[in-house]
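Input:
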Amino acid sequence: MSSTSFTDLLASSGVDCYEQNEDFLGGFYPERTGSGLPKFKTAQPPPLPISQASHGFSFSDLLDSPLLLSSSHSLISPTTGAFPYQCFNGTNNHSDFPWQLQTQPQQPNASSALQETYAVQDLQKKQEDPVHREFGSDRQVKVPSYMVVSRNSNDGYGWKKYGQKQVKKSENPRSYFKCTYPNCVSKKIVETASDGQITEIIYKGSHNHPKPEFTKRPSGSRRMFNTSSVVSETHEQSENSSISFEYSDLEQKSFKSEYGEVEEEEEQLEIKRLKREGE
DNA sequence: AAGCTTTGACCTATA
DNA sequence: TTATAGGTCAAAGCT
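Output:
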């Protein structure tokens, strides 16, 4: 993350509000190329005013940033690094928005410095569970990976897991997913911590199809989540956010109602499932 | 029975 | 050329 600025991070995050509310960054937003071709790891972030100074992303950088200082929307906790998505507050109450963006700690000389990787963490879980407040907790929760993934990273698309691997770059295993839509080359890599939290989601390639309808829940993808928290590796991905990541108000409302109805039932199923595993 | 995840082996890119 | 790491394949097992 050494060369990735906060604005890179925001711009690439696919967070809807940055497209809808460009004033958030003082009018700055990533230039759109329109190439449509997926870029993989070679993609570099565009030159940005505040991206050239530091090797790492620090909160002092944040605080020094005129972009952030001028923004009344974002308040970053110097102690937790929590980044509340208050930009949503205009139309919806997202105080229960469970995600947190963080930069990954990285070696200063890491060769992957130019690679854009962003961490997505379950803030709510941390806030509710004291164990999560302890850095480096070795708490182990035996939860099948597919369960964790579908719970936290469902973006409305169908994903098929085709591999999992422990990579050296991170202590957490990576799960590899392909879009199940025919001829769609979109993939995503989900990094999951030992306690079940998703620590990183990387999107590769773009969907060449619209998002499937919500009316019927896809098997294996049991929850519909607002994907505003999901980050993409390529700028093309955020460019395609009109297809991939934007939810209309109507969709959000229907999502909420469906989610509310479904949640309890799903919780029960999961509890039963975990019980069975424990036996 | 179908569709899914798991996981070790294999492939490929890079230093 | 070789070693290493990341990504993918595919058979097996599970739900």
